[in-house]
Amino acid sequence: MSTTRSDITDDGNFDGGDEGGVTDQEEKKFVLQISFGNDVRYFRMKRKCLLSRLMKLYCESKNLDFENVIFLYNGRRLRPELTPDDVDMENGAAIEAILVRSM
């Protein structure tokens, strides 16, 4: 299943600044960041979208094997089948990506 641009948007180095008025469609999305070492990427996604879609999009953009990367939020491992609402993510939430070695 491919990720559509309407569900998740890679905002690159989004500064989080005020963008003026917010439409109904934009209210359903929020910004979060994924850090991998010193690299930080910003994404907009719908609150009801599965985290697996975001995780796979991030891994594809970084040429990482999805099976060898874990994602942490508040020190806890994120499960791909959950949504941001399931784990009470706030706008601007920080997720850490960690590469694990496969045996």
TrEMBL record:
Comp. bias intervals (Acidic residues): 9-18
Domain Rad60/SUMO-like: 40-99
Gene3D superfamilies on file: Phosphatidylinositol 3-kinase Catalytic Subunit, Chain A, domain 1
Chain positions covered by the region annotation Disordered: 1-22
Cited Pfam families: Rad60-SLD
Name of the protein described by the UniProt record: Rad60/SUMO-like domain-containing protein
